[in-house]
């Protein structure tokens, strides 16, 4: 049985890629075959004739995933917009759900674990008509919700949990990511406050630019049991 998750966030810039890379590296260190996927990447630069997906490359490098880039990141756009808007502006093909599903199944077939990084927040569109929540439902992926540990994050977290429940998605847990090296008083109290506000389990916290704690990985590994 594969150990698969969709890494989503409460918005952009919360550290989904950072957490994904850290989780991929930690699972790889446990001798697991780790597959990664970032179905859509925006803001790509063109290099050597291709659109280079920096986040997808980082995920693959950290996890040791050597599968073709066309599987890991099938849709890439220059414009730093939501994928369907970027596709229109770039005059490119928009993402297709069934193609993403097909790429995921190929990755899953040769992996012990697959980490899929979503686009922005859970309700952000992948294409007109389906969003990251719809993708999680289609792939039957439990969610790891990354929350930027800063003032104002509690409301965004609760709205994300509420939307996930409205879509009947499974929530593996939430993780507070210290996006700044210096913690404010609010950031120091956010974990305890959020734990009292929701029954969604806490996976722990990730200190600024530090590896994931062993306890976080143990919780992810235990989730499938």
Written overview of the protein:
This protein is an alpha/beta fold. It has a single domain, classed as Rossmann fold. Helix content is 41%, strand content 24%. It is built from nine helices and twelve strands. The protein has helices at residues 16-29, 54-63, 69-72, 83-90, 97-108, 132-139, 153-166, 185-197, 214-223, and strands spanning 3-9, 34-37, 40-41, 45-47, 50-52, 75-76, 113-121, 125-127, 130-131, 143-148, 171-177, 202-206. The strands form four sheets. The chain has a six-stranded parallel beta sheet, with helices on both faces. A hairpin with a 2-residue loop joins strand 4 (45-47) and strand 5. It is globular. It starts with a strand and ends with a helix.
